[in-house]
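Q: Could you fold this chain for me?
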Amino acid sequence: MIKRLSLASRLALLFAACTAVVSLIAGVLFNQASEAHFVELDQQLLDGKLIALRSTLQGVDTPQLFAQREAQLRAELNRQPDLALRITAAGQRWYDAAPGVTLPEAPGLHSLQNAGTEYRVYNVPLQPGQPNSPQLSLMLDITHHQHFLQRMQHLIWLTVGLSALATALLGAWAARSGLRPLRRMGEVAAGVSAHSLTQRLPQQQMPVELAELAQAFNAMLSRLDDAFQRLSAFSADIAHELRTPLSNLLTHTQVILTQPRPLEDYREALHSNLEELQWMAQLVNDMLYLAKADHGLLMPKREPLALEDDVDALLEFFALLAEDAQVSLIREGTAQTMGDRGMLRRALSNLLDNALRFTPVGGEVRVRIEDRVRLTVENTGDGIPAELLPRLFDRFYRADPARHEGSSEHAGLGLAITQSIVRAHGGRIFCESGVGWTRFVIELPKGV
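A: Sure. Below is the predicted structure, expressed as structure tokens.
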């Protein structure tokens, strides 16, 4: 099985390939520029020599006249040891300094290699504009130029190889250093467990490209930590709530079974156990309801509601309890909205039940409805300390420090359920309290 390359190795190879391509292109361009430069220099040198040769051979158009000027010509050629000359006219060679070299016949500048020697050949007429003018072939030895170009080509290839190797090594180091934050993220992710959800990535030390990813990763860890803490608290709370009723059921049943008893005693024991079982069933149903809310599974219906009608129906339901407690129930205002009647009635019922339980004799519970879909349930009585207000909607929380474990009347889930219902409708709920009064406020969006 072929081992996959790491990201650092891929980046290093990519850096090396890019450097090799860039170096090769730069070397080819430099080599071509150097060749063009040498050709230009050779052309200038040959043009200069051509002027001197034409001056020396001016007016020469026959072999006899050339013989008279040959000595001057040789003297001129001796000044440029790497320059050779061939003069031809009417198919005859008047002068040939390189008899064994076959030269191109076309006019202009040419390159030629002969017996390991490189030449720059320049074919021009001795007397421009005359059709029968002798032809001059200037041969410049450029072997040293070619040796320089060959050495430069070798240097280019060596530079390309060394640059690619050096870039690969430096690229591997740079990639490994640059990917260190990713390895750190991997280490943190590998160390995450139920007992170590508090680790966080240092966002300030992250590159700009990874800072957003680190922030999202830390936010995910925070959500996991919060969810785990809530799950642990829920498990502890539900075990706390169920421990007492289960113990009561077991103890009561064991006592009844210790000896034969009259039928009426068994009937009374079953009725007592039934009450405990009904409370436990209600607790389980409430927890399932909250679990659905946590997972966004509460889907309230949308139907037109006149809130005053629903509030009046609930106040009528609680009227007998309020009368027994000598508490007055008052409703003010009207409003129209869209929502789930059953769910909103359950939320309001929980608030009214709480208000009645904590309102002293002779007090009042007042429900206010405002057109902007703001509904308040306010009651007189002892206020709630400000430090306890944020926890009122926690599950199994009771503001009364003298809470009774496993109470079969109130498990501390009513306000949590109310909050879930309000949030499912897109609204919010909060509590305000002062000396002698407490107010729960529900705000629903106008589009609900």
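A (continued): The two ends are 60 Å apart (CA to CA).
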